[in-house]
Amino acid sequence: MAETLRFDADEVTAQVTEGIEKIQQASSTEELKSLRAQYAGADSAMTLASKAIGSLPADQKKDAGKLMGKLRADFGRAFAARETEVKAAEEKAALAAETVDMTLPVDRRPLGARHPLAKLMEDVQDFFTSMGWIIADGPEVETEWYNFDALNFGPDHPARQMQDTFYVKGDKARDAAGFVGSNMVMRTQTSSDQVRSLIKHGVPLYLACTGRVFRTDELDATHSPVFHQCEALAVDKNLTMADLKGVLDKLAVAMFGEGAKTRLRPSYFPFTEPSAEMDLWFPDKKGGPGWIEWGGCGMVNPNVLKSAGIDPKVYSGFAFGVGIERTLLLRHDINDMHDLVEGDVRFSEQFVMGE
Amino acid sequence: MPMVDIDWLKEHVEVPEGLTYDQLAKDLVRVGLEEEEIHRSTVTGPIVVGYVVDCVKEPQKNGKTISWTHVDVGEQYNATDENGNKVPRGIVCGAPNMAAGEKVVVTLPGAVLPGDFRIEPRKTYGHISDGMCASERELGLGDSHDGIILLRDYGFTPEQYEALKPGDDAMSLLHMDQPILEINITPDRGYAFSYRGVAREFHHSTGAAYTDPVVELNKHVPDLSADAADPAAKSDVEVAVEDNNPIHGVTGCDRYYARIIRGFDPSSPTPNWMRRRLTRAGMRSISLAVDVTNYVMLDLGQPMHAYDLDKLEGPIVVRRANEGEKLTTLDGKEHVLSPEDLLITDSPNGQRASRIIGLAGVMGGLYGEVTAETKNILLEAAHFDQVSIARSARRHKTPSEASRRFERGVDPQLQPAAAQMAAELLTRYGNGEASEHPTDLNNAPRAKSIHFKASEVKRLSGLDLGLNTISDVLSDIGCKLGGGGNGEFLVTPPSWRPDLGEPCDLVEEVARLVGYDQIPVRVPAAAAMADGGLTPAQARRRWVANTLAEYGLVETLSYPFVGDEDYKAFGYDPEATKQVSVELVNSLYGDRKFLRRSLLLTLAQTVQRNLRRGLEDVRLYEIGHVYQLDPNAPAIPALPGGVRPSDEDLAALDAGLPVQPDQVAGILTGNAIDSGWLKEKRPIDWSDAVEVVNRISDRLGAKLTLDQPKAEDAPAQWHPGRMAFVALPDGTRIGEVGELHPHVNEALGFPAHTAAFELDLTTLLASLDDKPFQAKPVSTFPPVKQDLAFTVSDDVTAAQLEAVIAEAAGDVLESIELFDVFTGKQLGEHQKSLAFAVTFRAPDRTLTAEDTESIRQAIVDKAATLGAQLRA
C-alpha cells in the first residue's frame, strides 16, 4: 500500500455519520451487508482511520482512539438496530408470502359413522349396566318353545296368531297342535330370551336384552319386518309393579331428558299378569308435549317363571319391552322408517359416531 | 274390532248427558279397552228428506230408462220459479225403484259424499239435475246400490213415516253425522266384544250405573225344569253332540240351545233403529231374521245362527268332519274339510248327520239358510270350544264375527238369554211366535274357584289396599266371594270371564279398577347381581364397531334375507347353499326366502343401493348374525309351557337350532383417498381391506394372521390371487379378506378392485384372553438399525420371511418393517426382493458390533431355510 495513512478526524466522522444514515435507510439484509463492507470493512474510512492512529503523535493518540471507539460503537449500534428491524420485516414478508386459505377443505381420511340404531342400543344397554344389570342377546332363529310356549302362549293361544310370525321351513318336527314343521320361528320379540336367561343365570336376575326381532309386516313409513327391541327382566323376591314404574320412569328420562315420565294402561300379554301398555310423556314432542305409546310391560306371568323352574310363590318379577326404532324416530324427529333400514350412508353420517 | 255407539251403549249403562266420543275413548282406555280410531263422518250436507211429487220415465238411446222427477225438499231447499214461488226441484234419477209418492233421501248441491264426491247441479239427459237421490252405498251406509233409499222400507212405524217432512235433516235421521268409536279388544277380554261387556267396563271406569241385560232376559226364558220332569213334553228339535275327535280332550260343543220361531213374516222390514245400529257397527242389513241374530251377537256377545226350519230334518247332530267332506259356506266358497273341523249337520231321509248345514261357530252353509220365503226359523245359540273354532277359522281362512267371539271365549251361561232376546225381536217385528220348549243340551263346566290370598295384591302390584276394597272390586266384576277370614277368599269368577284362572289374574282386575296410576313408584336395587355390566366380549364388540367407524367405514344394518340372485352374484352353488341355509315359510321378499350365511351378501345389497343413488367411495360395514343350518340337526321337540324342561330336553331344543354367530364384514369401493384439491388420490384395493382387518386385530390385541391359499383354492367370490383367509394365532380360520372377484363386481355393478372382508366375530372374541395384558419394560439403551434385503422365490410370502427373521433375531428385535418389494429380470424367473428395516435393542446393555453381527448371521442362516439369499 503506497498511500500513507492519514488520520482526519472530521473526515472519518463524516464518513461514519454518512454510513449510519445509509444503514438507517437500508431495506434489506443484502444492503446492510454491503453497507457494512463499505463503511466498516477493510477498506472503509473507519478501518483506515483506526490503522492511522498508530502513526499519530503520542499526545493525539488518546483522543483519536477515543473518537474511533465512539464511532465504531455508534456504527455497531446503528447496524444492529437496523438489522433487527430489517430481519423482522423480511421475515414478516416471507411469512406473508406463505399465507394460505385455511378454509380449504381438508379431509384425507374422512370419519365413518355408527348406525344410529346400533348406537342407541348401546346407550340403552349403558342405562341398565349403570344400575348393575347384565346384558343378554339370544338367538334370532328361535325355537317355538322359547318364543311362545315358555312365555305362556299355548299352541292354540289366540295371541300366537296375532304375532305375524315368520316361520322356519322344515318337515322333521311336529308342534304341540300336531302340525308338521320345524318348531322354529324368527323371534317375534326379545322376550324370547326371558326363559333362556332365567334358566342360564337363575334368580335373582336383573337383565336387559337388546336385539333384532322379526314380524311379517311390510316395510312402510312406520313398520319394518326386521326391527329392534329392548327387553328388561327383573326377577327377585319382593318386586312389584312399583319397581317396574320406577325403572320405566328412569329410562324415560335417560332417553328423552328431564321431564319425561311414563304411565300405564291395562292391557294383555300372555307372558305378564298384570299387564299394561306404557305411554311416554315426551316433553320435546313436535307440536307440543304429549303422551305417546312406547311399549308393553307387566309382572312376569307365573307360568313363565314355572317354565324356568322358578317358584312364583317365592319370586316375582317385572318385564317390559320398548321399540328401539320407535325411540329413535321420536328422539330425532325422523318421519320415515325407510331411512332406518335402507342403509343410505347420508342418513347415518348425520349421526357421525352417535351422541 | 268392535264399534261402540253411545246411543246403543245407553241401553245398558247410564251414560252422562253430552258424553263425547273423545271422552268415551278416554274412559274406556283407562280400564284397558284401547281406542283404535274414532271414525268421523265423511259426509257433509245438505242431505234432506224429499217427497217425489212427479216422476216421468224417459227411455234413452243407450237403452237406459231415467226418471225425470220433481222432488219437494221443503221450503228452505226448494227451487224458485220465474214468479218467485218456491217449487220442487227437478232431479234426474237412474234408479229403477224411483216413483212418485215416495219419500227419499236427497243430496243437494253443496253436499259432499264419501270419496270426496261433491254434489252440484249438472246437465244430464237433457235436463238440469238440481241434486241427487241417494242409494245406501253413495251415503256410505251400506253396500246396497240396487236402487235409491226409499224411506218407507227403512223400518219406520206408520206414524214415524207419516211424520217425515220434506226438508227434514236426513243426516241426523240416519245418524250419518255421528262419529263412532272403534276399540281394540285384547284376547283375554272376549266378553268386551259386546255392548253388554263394554257397558260393564264403562261402569268400572266411571261408576255409571250398569244393568246386565241378561238378568232381565233370563226372567223370561222358558223354564225347562218342567219339561225335564214331564216325559210327554216335546222339545223343539232333537239335538246330539257326537264328537269323536275332541281337541286336547275338550268336546267341541258343550252347549247347544235351539229355539223355534213359527209363523214369521219374511217380508217384515228390519226396524230403522236396528238397521241404523247394524250399519254403524259395520254390518250389512240383510233381512230381519239375519239382522236380529247379528244384533243379538253385537249386543250380548253370543254368535247365533238362523236356519230355515222347513229345510231341516232332525236330529241336528254336531260332529267332526270326515276326511274329504266338502262344504260351501254362505259366502259361496267351497272348503275341503279336516277331521278337526266341527260341523252342524241334519239328518235328511233318516240319514243321521248326513247333511252339513254349517261350519260350527265359523260360518253357516249355503243349504238351510233363511231366505225371503222362510216362515219357520230355528235359532241356534251354542257354546263351542275356543281352540276348535280358532283352528277351523285359521284353516279355512274365514275369520268371521262369530269365530272372533268364540275363539276369545263366549259366556257359556248366555245362550238361553240370547235366544230369548232374538225371539222377542222376531216376535215383535216379524209377527213370529216363539216356542216355549227350546232344546238345551248343556254340558258346560262350572267355573273353577280360585283360592286367593288378598296379600297377593300388594306382593305383585305394590298397592296397599284394604280387604273391603279388594272384595268390592272383585264382586263388581261379577265374582262370587266366599271366606275372607285371614285375608283369604274363595273366588268364583263370573261365567263371562274364562280368562280369570289364577290369583295374578285377580290382582290385575283389582289393580286396573283401582287404577294403575295409584301404584307407587320405586327403583329396585340390583345389588344382588355381582356380575353386572358388560361382558368383555360385549365391550370388545363395541370397540370393533367404533374402530371401523373411526377408520372411515359407515355402519349399516341390512335385512338378513337372501336368494338366488345373491347366490349367483357371489358365484355360490345355489342348491348346495340352500341345503345349509335357513328357509322361511312365509317370506315377504319372494325369492329372497333364505337367511344369509354371510354378511357380505346382504351388505352388497346395501352397497348397491348407495351406488345406484349416485354415491361414490361407498365403504360400509356391518356387525350382525348369520345363520348356519345343519341339515342333519335333530328335530326340535314340542314341549309344554309352564314346566321347566329336563336338561336333556333343553339340550334338544338348542341342538336343533342353527348356529348363529355374529360376523363383522365390510365392503370398500371407489377411492381409498380422494383429497380433492390436494390432488392425493388412490383407488381402493386389497390392501385397504387388509388394513381394516389389521386395525381390528390391533384394537383387540388379537394377533390375527393371513393365510393365503393357492389361486385354485380361493373361494369363488374372491379374486383368486388377491384373497387370504384370516386366522387366529393357532391357525383357526375365522374369515376372509381381499378383493372381490371381477365377476362379482360385474354382477353387482361395483367398481373394479372392490375390496371386502368378513370375520366370525363370535369366534374371534371368544379366543381372546380376559386377563390383563403383561407389559414389557422399555429399554433405554441405544438401538441398532439395519436394512436387510433378500432375494427369495415368489411363492414365499412376506409374512413367512418376516416370521423367520423375527424368530432368528429373538428378544433383541424391537421392530421389523418391510420397506421395499421388487421384482425384475436381474433377479431371475419367479424371484422377488423383499427389503426389511430392522431395529435391534437389548433390554440390559448396549449391543456391540459382535452382537449385531451374530444376530445378522443367525437371520441369514434362518432365512436360507426358505431359500432366501441376502442381497449384497
Automatic annotation (TrEMBL), chain A:
**Alphabetical keyword list:** Aminoacyl-tRNA synthetase, ATP-binding, Cytoplasm, Ligase, Magnesium, Metal-binding, Nucleotide-binding, Protein biosynthesis
**So which domain of life are we looking at?**
Bacteria
Catalysed reaction equations from the record: tRNA(Phe) + L-phenylalanine + ATP = L-phenylalanyl-tRNA(Phe) + AMP + diphosphate + H(+)
Give the main EC class: ligase
Which coarse location class describes where this protein primarily resides? Answer: cytoplasm
CC cofactor: Mg(2+)
This entry's Gene Ontology molecular function terms read: ATP binding; magnesium ion binding; phenylalanine-tRNA ligase activity; tRNA binding
Q: How is the cofactor bound?
A: Binds 2 magnesium ions per tetramer.
Record PROSITE patterns: AA_TRNA_LIGASE_II
Q: Which GO terms describe its biological process?
A: phenylalanyl-tRNA aminoacylation
A single GO cellular-component term from the record reads:
cytoplasm
Instruction: Specify the signal sequence span.
Output: none
User: What are the Aminoacyl-transfer RNA synthetases class-II family profile domain coordinates in residue numbering?
Assistant: 119-330
Q: Where in the cell is it found?
A: Cytoplasm
Q: Report residues binding Mg(2+).
A: 273
* Subunit (UniProt): Tetramer of two alpha and two beta subunits.
| Similarity remark | Belongs to the class-II aminoacyl-tRNA synthetase family. Phe-tRNA synthetase alpha subunit type 1 subfamily.
Which protein are we looking at?
Phenylalanine--tRNA ligase alpha subunit
Origin species, per record, is: Bifidobacterium avesanii
Please name the taxonomic classification of the source.
Bacteria, Bacillati, Actinomycetota, Actinomycetes, Bifidobacteriales
State the encoding gene.
Answer: pheS
TrEMBL record, chain B:
Q: Which CDD domains match?
A: PheRS_beta_core, tRNA_bind_bactPheRS
| GO terms under biological process | phenylalanyl-tRNA aminoacylation
Known EC number = 6.1.1.20
EC class (word): ligase
Q: Can you provide one Gene Ontology molecular function annotated for this UniProt record?
A: tRNA binding
Q: What is any Pfam family matched here?
A: tRNA_bind
Cofactor dependency: Mg(2+)
What region holds the TRNA-binding domain?
41-162
Domain B5: residue ranges: 445-521
Q: Which SUPFAM superfamilies match?
A: Anticodon-binding domain of PheRS, Class II aaRS and biotin synthetases, Nucleic acid-binding proteins, PheT/TilS domain, Putative DNA-binding domain
Cited PROSITE patterns:
B5, FDX_ACB, TRBD
Q: Which GO terms describe its cellular component?
A: phenylalanine-tRNA ligase complex
Keyword line: Aminoacyl-tRNA synthetase, ATP-binding, Cytoplasm, Ligase, Magnesium, Metal-binding, Nucleotide-binding, Protein biosynthesis, RNA-binding, tRNA-binding
FDX-ACB domain spans which residues?
779-871
Per UniProt, where does Mg(2+) bind? 499, 505, 508-509
Similarity comment text for this entry: Belongs to the phenylalanyl-tRNA synthetase beta subunit family. Type 1 subfamily.
Subunit structure comment from the entry: Tetramer of two alpha and two beta subunits.
Q: What is the name listed in the Swiss-Prot or TrEMBL entry for this protein?
A: Phenylalanine--tRNA ligase beta subunit
Source organism (scientific name): Bifidobacterium avesanii
